[in-house]
């Protein structure tokens, strides 16, 4: 088993980069580790089954390296260094760097689900509509000042500008064609910088779909605050469609911007979502 440390120098505020994690890993007893930059890919073909690929970055970086681990049958280790770090929450990783590095070195691998939008892997959440705004409009300075709450700041600022979009959501139980403010499809229990999805898990073999219908500004603001600051389920909210499918399809009336794990995917008119149960080896305790 070999250890790899892959760092994204642009993640978060830059304080938890390669040097930070290398120092803590060495203090935890790791002496043999190969260092690589996220921008390089020459190293990927050298990863062997059973190796541990430690990723120092945000959710987007983690998702990219998850595909490498999946293809090379390696184990993914997460060293949270971004703004939201939702996948780290999904794995119940310790916040203390020393304890985390000890876990990365000696912790037993677990297996978690992998979600797909077409051929693109995602670990946390895909957004269509209002939910894409934090990715596209949260400036580096805003992220530095407010951290994961920068996402909420952007949503509050832009909420009144949203007119919604028409889309049809197709799933095993039927179809829903309405005007939506935002649609989110999540794989685990956390997304959006700490929003908790009750009863969701990285190992349940299902996705969680939450679609908010277009409506009055006060009602939408209330829903946004509920999802941000409480674990209150939204199943009984008239304005929200919630599903737990193994797969689903979304057909949009017009091309819309789609983001996955905090990264732009592009503009799409039709999307297919699936999940592969317990496909990825990770270090942590999946929720």
Give the strand content.
35-45%
Main sheet characteristics: 13 strands, mixed
Count of domains: 2
- Which stretches are low in confidence, meaning pLDDT under 50 for 5 or more residues running? 138-150
The CATH class assignment of the largest domain is Mainly Beta
**CATH architecture group name of the largest domain:** Sandwich
Helix content: 25-40%
Looking at CATH, which topology of the largest domain would you report? Tumour Suppressor Smad4
How do the helices and strands follow one another from N- to C-terminus? EHEEHEHHEEEHHHEEEEEHEEE
Choose one word for the global shape.
elongated
Strand pairing plus helix content: what structural class? Answer: alpha+beta
List the total number of helices: 8
Total number of β-strand segments?
15
Radius of gyration: 19 Å
Distance between the termini: 26 Å
Mean pLDDT: 83
What does this protein look like?
This protein has helices spanning 18-27, 59-72, 86-90, 97-106, 133-137, 140-146, 150-158, 217-229, and strands at residues 3-7, 33-37, 52-57, 75-80, 109-117, 120-122, 125-129, 165-171, 174-186, 190-191, 195-196, 208-213, 240-243, 247-260, 263-283. The protein has 287 residues and is α+β, with helices and mostly antiparallel strands. It folds into 2 domains: 3-107, 3-Layer(aba) Sandwich (Rossmann fold); 120-277, Tumour Suppressor Smad4 (Sandwich), CATH 2.60.200.40. The strands form 2 sheets. Strands 1, 2, 3, 4, 5, 6, 7, 8, 9, 12, 13, 14 and 15 form a 13-stranded mixed β-sheet that branches. A two-stranded antiparallel sheet has the order 10-11. β5 and β6 form a beta hairpin. The model is unreliable at 138-150 (pLDDT under 50).
């Amino acid at each position: 088993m070999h250890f790899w440390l892959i760092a994204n120098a642009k993640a978060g505020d830059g304080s938890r980069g390669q040097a930070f994690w290398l120092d803590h890993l060495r203090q935890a007893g790791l002496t043999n580790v190969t260092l690589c930059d996220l921008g390089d890919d020459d190293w990927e073909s050298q990863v062997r089954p059973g190796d541990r690929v430690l990723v120092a970055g945000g959710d987007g970086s983690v998702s990219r390296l998850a595909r490498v681990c999946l293809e090379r049958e390696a184990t993914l280790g997460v060293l949270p260094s971004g703004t939201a770090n939702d996948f780290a929450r999904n794995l119940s990783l310790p916040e203390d760097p020393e304890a985390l590095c000890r876990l990365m070195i000696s912790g037993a691998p677990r297996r978690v689900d992998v979600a797909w939008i077409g051929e693109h892997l995602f670990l946390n959440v895909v957004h269509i509509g209002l939910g894409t705004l934090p990715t596209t409009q949260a400036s580096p300075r805003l992220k530095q000042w407010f951290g994961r709450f920068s996402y909420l700041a952007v949503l509050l600022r832009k909420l009144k500008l949203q007119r919604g979009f028409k889309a049809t959501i197709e799933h095993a139980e039927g179809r829903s064609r309405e005007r939506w403010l935002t649609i989110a499809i999540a794989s685990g229990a956390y997304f959006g910088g700490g929003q908790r999805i009750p009863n969701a898990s990285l190992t349940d073999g299902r996705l969680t779909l939450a679609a908010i219908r277009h409506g009055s500004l006060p009602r939408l603001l209330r829903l946004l605050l509920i999802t941000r600051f409480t674990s209150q389920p939204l199943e009984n909210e008239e304005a929200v469609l919630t599903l737990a499918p193994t797969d689903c399809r979304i057909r949009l009336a017009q091309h819309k911007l789609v983001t996955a794990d905090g990264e732009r995917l592009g503009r799409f008119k039709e999307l297919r979502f699936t999940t592969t149960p317990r496909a990825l080896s990770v270090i942590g305790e999946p929720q």
